């Protein structure tokens, strides 16, 4: 059953004969459908689809909160000797979720003592064999990102 029909039915059985006014404005509220790559009015969504989308959004928010908390809980890594690569974070997806993680890293970075560099990681498959990664893949040609955090000179 579509949401606009459900809202109408619930309004009818409610004691006042109506729901809150914003429930009738769901035709103006859009949901970005991943399956069709289009925005659809929430009022046109099936009830089951709306619930699944809601649950998915909660899971996404919890996952992002966990990543941010892990970053905040990490000990100061630059005071420890490195036993391998110089990058601090790797395999960050080069998409909107990865960009949000990167924005939060930049937001909480101690800019007085550290600088941040972001490099591309893993060439996009459609660019294989074109010589695009001879000296390393650029950020725009990469599927993932690596983050380097360096002490500022004189520190």
How would you describe this structure in keywords?
155 residues; alpha+beta; 2 domains; three-stranded antiparallel sheet; two-stranded antiparallel sheet; 5 strands
What does this structure look like?
This protein is an alpha+beta fold. The protein has three helices and five strands, in the order αββαβαββ. The chain is elongated. The longest helix is centred in the middle third of the chain and has 27 residues, at 47-73. Helix 2 packs parallel to helix 3. The protein has helices at 3-13, 47-73, 96-108; strands at 30-33, 38-41, 89-93, 114-123, 142-151. The model has no long low-confidence stretch (mean pLDDT 85). The chain folds into two domains: 3-69, no CATH class; 75-151, no CATH class. Strands 3-5-4 form a three-stranded antiparallel β-sheet, covered by helices on one side. The chain has a two-stranded antiparallel sheet with strand order 1-2. A hairpin with a 4-residue loop joins strand 1 (30-33) and strand 2. Helices cover 33% and strands 21% of the residues.
